[in-house]
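WARN no homologs supplied; continuing
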Amino acid sequence: MLGALHEVAGTGPDMEHAAAAALFAAGCLARLPGTVLWVLERSDLFAPGLAAVGLHPARVLYAEAGKAATVLLVMEEGLREPGLAGVVGEVSGRLTLTASRRLQLAAERSGVTAFAIRRPRRHDDPALLEPCAAVTRWQVASLPSGPPIPGAPDVPGLTQARWQLELVRCRGGEAGAWIVGACDAQGRLGVVSDLAD
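OK structure emitted
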């Protein structure tokens, strides 16, 4: 849904780094024309990774906020600019119901899509279970990629990455889970070839 706030988090060991979650958000925004504001608490984003899923670094404005509370403020300011394709904020602290509601309302007013990538310090952080005004809540888990050659089905290879996408919450819709091929160079997700039937 465009013009809305979406919450995305990794799972397990990827929870703190949120690499798969960041690539998922970048792939979604790669399909939208325009500039993306990416708000970071610390500068550890790998721009070539974003380019690999279709979001060229020339389309991204990076804002290093320094602390979690500032990330939310910069996101809200960015969402007031209707000329952006999207706003992404990497949130390591709490995302309260009030803060998320402010982001959702700003996204609705401007029509700009927002992603809050959750990056807690611990995988069992109770803040992840708190209510949030986001329209959707996603969890992205990396799975082993398929074999490089059909003749060696037991040998994992360096093929397209796979994700377990779980739609945990969807306002007005149903939750679900899917195994997909990670975003390609145009930002599109795909059905994993051995599951396509």
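The domain at 5-138 is CATH 3.40.50.300 (Rossmann fold).
OK
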